Amino acid sequence: MRRVITYGTFDLLHTGHINLLRRAKEFGDYLIVAISADEFNAIKGKEAYYTFEQRKAILEAIRYVDEVIPERTWEQKVEDVQKHEVDVFVMGDDWVGKFDFLKDHCDVVYLPRTVGISTTKIKTDLNLSKANNG
Ligand code: C2G
After folding, report:
1. Would you state the pLDDT for residue 134?
2. What average pLDDT does this structure show over 76-105?
3. What DSSP character marks residue 5?
4. What kind and span of H or E run contains 124?
């Protein structure tokens, strides 16, 4: 049983997230997703539209996802990899190199991001359409 882990906010779920989760699952048999807790999002300078509980419920409904855990700090990854017996750590390549320290504990894979979609773009587009429609 090869175990895979990935981390993120996963707010306003979109095809970029789904593409990442689908490809991450292809590296093993069991995919753990560490979702940023609301307090950790504040540290990342992000404010998610959906709460942690809502984002957790949404991710748990995805066929590729086997388990959802909270991401509360930048420093928890080594402990998570050890505690959950992770074989592969997967992230989008906007993070390339940032988590290479995990190579002492598991495989580290950075996957190409899906071009043209992001939570920020969704928010911007929605605000623009609201402005145009009054
Ligand atoms: N992603 C992607 N393509 C997009 C948008 C996002 O492949 N168009 C990927 C990101 O690269 C990331 C994952 O989807 O691997 C989740 O993205 P975010 O929710 O934006 O997560 P982020 O804020 O990058 O948090 O400790 C790591 C951080 O928690 C990562």
Report:
1. 75
2. 98
3. E
4. helix 119-133
